[in-house]
Amino acid sequence: MDHRQDPEADAGEAAAPEDAAVVETPPDEGEPPGPEETATAAEAPAAPLPHAPVPPPLPPAAQDPAQPSLPDPAAPRRRRGKTTLLIACALVLGAVAGVCQGYVTQADLEPTPLPPLAQAKLGVDEAAVVSGEDAPRDKAKGDLRKLLLPMPKGSRLQAGNPKAGAWLPAYEVADHWKDPEWAFEHHLDAGFQRCAIREWERGHQETDVWLVQFRDELAQGARGYADGQLEALRNGDWEHSRAKSIPGSATGQAFVLDKPQREPGYLPYYEARAVARRGNVVMLVFISDSKPISSAQIMKVAKQQLERL
Question: Residue 106's pLDDT is what?
Answer without folding.
Answer: 73
